[in-house]
Amino acid sequence: MIDLRSDTVTRPSAAMLDAMMTAETGDDVYRDDPTVQALEAEAARLSGKAAALFFPTGTQANLVALLSHCQRGDEYIVGQQAHNYKYEAGGAAVLGSIQPQPISHAEDGSLPLHEIIAAIKPDDIHFARTRLLSLENTHHGKVLPLSYLEQAWQLTRTHNLALHIDGARIFNAVVAQKIALTDIARYCDTLTICLSKGLGTPVGSLLCGDSAYIETARRWRKMTGGGMRQAGILAAAGLYALQHNVDRLQEDHDNAAWLGEQLRAAGIEVLNQHTNMLFVKVPEAQVNALKAWMTERGVALSVGPVTRIVTHLDVDRTDLTQLVAHWQAFLRQR
Predict the structure, then answer these.
(1) Aromatic amino acid beta-eliminating lyase/threonine aldolase domain spans which residues (predicted)?
(2) pTM score
(3) Would you place residue 223 in the very low, low, confident or very high pLDDT band (cuts 50, 70, 90)?
(4) Which among 165, 180, 267, 324 counts the fewest CB atoms within 10 Å?
(5) For residue 192, what are the β-bridge partners?
(6) CA distance 16 to 34
(7) 143-147: long-range contacts (C-beta < 8 A, 24 or more apart)?
(8) CA distance 266 to 334
């Protein structure tokens, strides 16, 4: 199977599995799992934050991030297409009574600064209290420029807001810009790091911030069911990923760029390509037929009028060459 639906579909390598099976473990709820402690310390070091906390999922890490920043009746400003607004089941509103204030993304994936300012509520009993700006980096594969992050950071300091970055694919942004994670993290109060996307672990995300914030988050993690016991087995995969799978993200970016060129040459409309994601236009009349065609040939695609294709460590240039050949054959028989 050539699976290009997402970079969440990767399977742990033999070396990662070996690290997991030989991991030293304790009980993380009692704070005595040494491998979890090592992973959290490494995430804190890489991000330049004082502390980090390990979670089973990115959705829970984002939820706890919002719960730790906002009280009931508070509000966070967020992108209309952001994961922690649109794709995480409304958890902040349902479980935290936190009101989202979504605004539209600019073409480059950023939230326009003037629209952020316009969305901030006055300090008035009629309104929810605006407490947080949440950004996503990368957003649909698009990297937020450091210059924009600096401006957003200054905006939040002026308006007494916290700034959180949903960094599910933040190392894609790091690699694309040839910078360190600290270069991004200096412009936020908190950030999440997903280990189970491009970094290739089976599960796991991290939340990074200052020590007092992470202690608050630890309580929320327990309350939302994220306290794990011998979690070092999972944390070992995360440590392996941070040590071995960050720099290789450039291969995914290069493969996505190459695939975009090949699809364009085949007459397929590529709408855009950034980092490890391509978005391809598929005529409505071809959607179902293309999906069936690819499935029959062992290719998993989330086919729609706009089809997202995601490269990752479990697909190589040979796999992508096969994808192009299958697509060309599909078009020939239409």
Answers:
(1) 3-282
(2) 0.95
(3) very high
(4) 267
(5) 166, 207
(6) 17
(7) 143/109, 143/172, 143/173, 143/176, 143/177, 143/274, 143/275, 144/108, 144/109, 144/110, 144/173, 145/108, 145/110, 146/177, 146/179, 146/183, 146/184, 146/187
(8) 14
Q: How far is CA 84 from the centre of its chain?
A: 10
Measured CA to CA, the distance from residue 77 to residue 206 in angstroms comes to 22
Strands lying side by side in the sheet with 51-55: 51-55, 205-209, 190-194, 162-167, 129-136, 74-79, 99-103
d(Cα 206, Cα 191) in Å, to the nearest integer? 8
Residue 63 class from Cβ within 10 Å (0-12 exposed, 13-18 middle, 19+ buried)?
buried
- In tens, the pLDDT along 22-51 reads 999 999 999 999 999 999 999 999 999 999
Q: Could you read off the pLDDT of 171-196 as tens digits, one per residue?
A: 999 999 999 999 999 999 999 999 99
SS3 118: helix
Between CA 115 and CA 148 the distance in angstroms is 14
pLDDT tens digits, residue range 137-170?
Answer: 999 999 999 999 999 999 999 999 999 999 999 9
- pLDDT-derived band at 53 (thresholds 50, 70, 90) equals very high
Residue pointed to by tokens 């742990």: 12
Q: What percent of the chain has pLDDT over 90?
A: 99
Q: Are 267 and 280 in contact (CB under 8 A)?
A: no
d(CA 123, CA 119): 13
Q: Which two tokens stand for residue 98?
A: 């936190």
DSSP 9-57: -----HHHHHHHHT-----GGGT--HHHHHHHHHHHHHHT-SEEEEES-
In this prediction, residue 275 carries a pLDDT of 98
DSSP characters over 261-320: HHHHHTT--EEEEETTEEEEE--GGGHHHHHHHHHHTTEE-B-SSEEEEE--TT--HHHH
d(CA 286, CA 332): 13
Pair 137, 171: CB distance under 8 Å: no
